[in-house]
Amino acid sequence: MFNRISSILLIIFLVAGTVSIGIAAGKAGGNARKGKYLYRKNCRECHKEGASAKDLSPADKTQAEWETLFAKGAHKSYQCAAEWDKRSEKDLKDIFSYMYDHAFDSPSPAKCK
Amino acid sequence: MMSGIVKRPISRRNFLKLSGAATAGAVVGSRSGILHALVPKSSVAKQGRIDKRFSICDMCFNKCGLIARVDEHGVVTKLDPNPKFRKSRGMLCARGNAGIKQLYDPDRLKYPLLRKGERGQGKWQRLTWEQALDLAAEKMQRIAETYTRCGMLFMAGSDLQSTFVHHFAEVFGSYNVISHESNCLLSRNRAFLDTFGEVPFADLLNCKYVIMAGANRFEALVTPDSIDIVTAMQNGCKLVVLDPRYTKTAALAHEWHSIRPGTDMAFFLAIAHVLVSETLYNKAFITEKTSGFDKLAEHIKPYTPEWAEKECEIPSKDIRRIAREMAKAAPAAIVYPGRRSSDYKNSTQIRRSFAIVNALLGNWDKKGGLTVAGKVGLSSPELPEAPFYEDNPEERVDAGRAKMMFDEEGSFKHTRDAVIEGKPYPIKGWFTYKTNPMQTGANREKTVEMIRKLDFMVTVDIAMSDTAWMADLVLPAPSYLERKDPISALQGVSAGACVITRDPVVPAMFDSKPVNWIVSELAKRLDLGEFFDFTMDSYRKAQVKNLPDAMKAINKDGVYYNKSKLYGRYEGKVFKTLSKKIELFSQRYEQTGLDPIPVYTPPKSVPEGRFRIVVGRNAYITQGSSTNNELLAELVPENRLWLHPDPALKLGIRQGDTVEVASTVGKERLKVRITEEIRKDTVYMDSGFGAMSKGLSNVYGKGACIAAVLEDHSDDISGNMAMHETMVAVRKI
After folding, report:
1. Which of A50, B124, B192, B510 has the smallest number of CB atoms closer than 10 Å to its CB?
2. What is the reported pLDDT for B563?
3. Residue A101 touches chain B, beta carbons under 8 Å
4. Which domains are delineated in chain B?
5. Is the CB of A40 inside 8 Å of chain B's CB atoms?
6. Which residues pair with B488 in a beta bridge?
7. CA B620: distance to chain centroid?
């Protein structure tokens, strides 16, 4: 039983750890500028007005929402799961940083130009 | 549409003058040309056809609609307001009228110039555009190869074509893009964004009670605000002004208090104290729409009006009365957010106190209160994705120096420091467009020092500003009356949001070229031509793809309005804050280690025998666009130092004497204006004078440059320049 509790606790810590990326300093820790480039190159193709997926820009979601969407393993249920799998860990961190840093309720919300 | 013709009995002298005017009508820019307006209708017909062409004024940032009168020789003879332009309430101010003298200024930059000799010597060699662009591209390429793309700094002013400069900077690959905004309004934006999730506008037209702290709307014109407040006052609105200076706004207000500079926060925390302790706030609004009220109520307990009186020198009974009057007028009561908030090291927190009082008044998104930007419906043309340069540093050069800088705006002060230090990495190139940091950046000597660190500086401007004077390469741009611009949205508060653009009223003079052409030519030379593969027409077409009626309206009326409601835009919406509500207590500030509710710190006291210098302007000469204007220079040929009679007497200074104003960073000389309209511990001079460029023959050497005297402090949170922290000594010369 002790083993079971400690492994549950371990899972909770791991999940909490992953979800709490970047709350500390308000920045998500990746390269947001590279993330902007990667997002536009890979995701924007579909995630734009008139294309196959929902038009998405960083300011469309809150920081908390982006954290949930980018939590480890969360993408498996997305339609574009295959696209996510193609990206490296670093790439995903960078893309997340871009979305998080310019989210709806961020200190520098993306301007809908 | 023959507006502007004045019918009056004509004296013999006037008749002779006017006849002279009729025959001399074709003389470019002569004063008699303006008398056309007084000539009776039949005489105007004899002078030949007058074409009326729309444009948008560029003499300041307001962008008022105008109608230019062009005679049969293709000469612009008069600039009139556009009566259909609601944001300006159909008005064109003195500067707008004087725009003719920007167009027809003999001092205008005419062709590309390359510096010969030392910076500031004023020795130039004329180049062809081919030579100038080849040189600029080569220099930028060299900087990119040696220092990465981020080795180039870009600074573009408030202009309809600046978007192309930003696009160029993005495809070139530099993150180091700044603007004048960090010398102006960023701390206001920071404070209101962090409270309300959005930067609001003030619906002055329908307001019943306005406090303007520092803002000088009857001289520092903002449309429609400056005009609307007058209308509102005619309709019973009360205007209270807090200003250490008896400005024209103070003079016309119902109440003026000569507040001790730097104590606005004390005043507004005390107002909040009264509103809370006397339960004068709207309970339902506070419960539904705000978060942190309990913490605020606790926090402001010690900030009583009696305490505030000692700090701001405004009687406590007045503070109480004003709070009660505001509450009675609420929600049509506003603490005016103001605009320039580049004053103190804690400007953002000061403006947070403004925002908090507004929140307590429950005026958000209501008629006569704070309103939000309206939807316009312009689209962003789809351009090819900018490349990513792997060798670039990870961040902007000014990152990390302010606690919560706006990522896309940066900070001029911090960038300048970084360039001088060469840390965290070197910046060796500077591209400026329609911005004049030599005049607007506090501590001018530091700007000079920064420029000396550069390998290459290129400035695009209409006139040889002080900044152009210091550059390596100066490129002549046309004035607004000669340009074809992209389409742009303009927020107009209760006038509604609109869509504007410019088409040339007259062809570009001399060898001037618009900046969109300049950057696209540079792009071609840098193998970035694919990112500028569009024309202005195709760009515009893409912009209005969802607004089929826009171009027709613009061609017919000079402006397009999209119907959208003015109030109640937040119905059913959440606020863009962490709590999704208006944050009286800022969660983000708490997380970042900043005071979540403003904590008062007194300003530096003024040392004995010295003065605090404060910044402001007159209504005629305000920015680079209105400098060196022959007509406006007649109205205000120079600035003077405002000094109270009591310290003047002690210093042996008499009216009109020349004085030296000195701070730790510079000294300037100018004439004195002894007046009781300024506090004994404070001095003032208009900004925008004391030009050092000999290319500005109307104003060179006249008056003093306040930037040469101002020390460069900055707001902790936003990195906004803090220009009211400088103490000066004044002595007679």
Report:
1. A50
2. 83
3. yes
4. 12-103 (2.20.25.90), 186-372+569-592 (3.40.228.10), 611-732 (2.40.40.20)
5. yes
6. B500
7. 14
